[in-house]
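Note to self: the last two entries modelled the partners one at a time, which told us nothing about the interface. This time every component goes in together.
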Amino acid sequence: MTDGPTITTIAQRAGVSIASVSRVLNGLPTREDTVRRVMRAADELGYVPNSVARSLRNRRTDQIAFAMADIGNPVYVAMVREIQPALKEAGYRLLIHSTDGDADDELGVLRGLRERYVDGLIISPLRGVTEEHVEAIVAARAPVVVIGALPEHMPEGALVDNVRTDSRAGVRLALDHLYAIGRRRIGFLNGPLDTVPGAARAAAYREALGALGLPYDEDLVEVGDFYRDSGARAARALLAREPEVDALMCANDLIALGALDVLREQGRDVPGDVAVVGMDDTDLASVTWPTLTSVSLGSAERGRAAAGLLLDRLQNGPREPRVVVVRPSLTVRGSTAVPGGRAGGAG
Amino acid sequence: MTDGPTITTIAQRAGVSIASVSRVLNGLPTREDTVRRVMRAADELGYVPNSVARSLRNRRTDQIAFAMADIGNPVYVAMVREIQPALKEAGYRLLIHSTDGDADDELGVLRGLRERYVDGLIISPLRGVTEEHVEAIVAARAPVVVIGALPEHMPEGALVDNVRTDSRAGVRLALDHLYAIGRRRIGFLNGPLDTVPGAARAAAYREALGALGLPYDEDLVEVGDFYRDSGARAARALLAREPEVDALMCANDLIALGALDVLREQGRDVPGDVAVVGMDDTDLASVTWPTLTSVSLGSAERGRAAAGLLLDRLQNGPREPRVVVVRPSLTVRGSTAVPGGRAGGAG
DNA sequence: ATGAATGCTGTAAACGTTTACTGCCGGGTG
DNA sequence: CACCCGGCAGTAAACGTTTACAGCATTCAT
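The predicted structure of the combined assembly is written out below.
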């Protein structure tokens, strides 16, 4: 009564052994009569199998974890939105680990794989895959998909697929676009250099300027965090130091939001005086005013790919690690809507 | 090697029984010498306890689920952001069920409680708590917290706490504000009437108008979905039918976004010509232009409260069901920033 | 009528823990 | 010296499944 029926309860009521009960419930060939008796008893008792016991015996939990820095970040929300239905479809439950950018937490999740509470993991390490990450992945002996950059050489035993985006190409798209609409003094508001995206975007900015024949000027670069208020601070500093900038390349949409705040506050027209480009192309980009031109790094697509790779591994067994690269694209909106000249902004 | 060490492996290596191993690992009083031997063996083997086996034996999984309609909705994101750290702090993992507003899915989660894969559940049923929900909750015999309205009378066995907000009061806050800044023809863009929030807000709108001595005019009301494009459609329809509206009360921020799109497109000044108020006070509200005055229904607070109630139950055992009511508040921003008159908008 | 083959069913072990219970050993007490 | 008690450790059962294996009827062929 208080403790819920088990197959033993059913077996007693139906007058058969627990083995028969199990077989019936799992649809294994059984005599018609036995099937009826067991089904009847199970129905009457309102039996529901205990998933923990089943997991212990089957050595699988039908659970998959997704670990990222911050569930409040629209990029990760976009990924979760793709991952969750894909997993549900395949009969897996989803566990969420929001690590708050805490590296120890992140490693904790990875090491926790050895507790076998999930069958696989999708992880997006904020500060890249360190030696320790690799060790934990090897020790895990459960499939892992990393969203983001992976070290050049992974050891043999690392069962790890990889989904990445070419943020270098993304930055180039943005700078090409700004160049095309006539901008020559292009500031750069970046996130922390010790994060993977931060470092990659810094290098890409420099490289893209070179390709366009523009000089790299340290005074045009400001480093902060990937948040709105930090973006505002950075924009303020940059505009004070270099009032002549005619475009701001922002390392993500939140930074761009902060920049827009400051530009509005200072009465500078966007994009007339200063054009602004964000990155990630989150939902926010179509909400701002003017709407924000942004480089899409395919968050949704990356989420979908990661789920696909993991499920493939779980369903079809071991295989060579795979890498999926998602191509960035540029969505032009109001904040750069000045084809060739310097007119008022549009939505 | 391939299968990971268990306490049996440790016991052999340390030359003790598995009981002693377990005792040492759980910090139960044990002879100094035994402790050392076991610890040493565990270290050398890189032992990690199997959480599934532990769950089976302990009859607890240290997992909690949160079920809501759509993880893409900022309201739920805000809740998750509060729930996740609270659970982590208490040693619980978080499972996410995004039901896509599918009622069967929602019931599935509730019924799934009987599989005992989680120790408790926080659920925010989109269309209210039906008879079937109640049945499932009673059958669950695991603590449940419902965010949203609960039926008047719950049966004895229902282990359910409740967190709700007073959206009636929220709507009143908004209408009082609009009235105070001189608006008299206040349109209402609502969500589906068969959702709990939709129905509540419809009633509240009517009631609040009455309290202000304003007539209820069906032509001023438009019903759609809780999404941006639906909000835009509704706004277009309403403005076409009633060009004289001087304010739009929107049943959530996304609808308000759509309304702002349409007003801008039609060249109507916000808040000069039409003031706009949203609901939920999501992150979006401070991003739009003009920024959006919005009624906060305390999403974060509700999430925190729900986690608190559930953890309390899990840690301190059964007690009388509790109800927490979160008071709404109004955050005034640009979209209504016209104290008493009809001047240009500000941020 | 006997043997093998066929088709179900039941017994028991296993998954990896925790813990009640029993038993052993040593020391203190009468 | 006998007894008891305390402190530890080991045996075994239990959590709720799944499944290998053995066994039993029944059927069929010879």
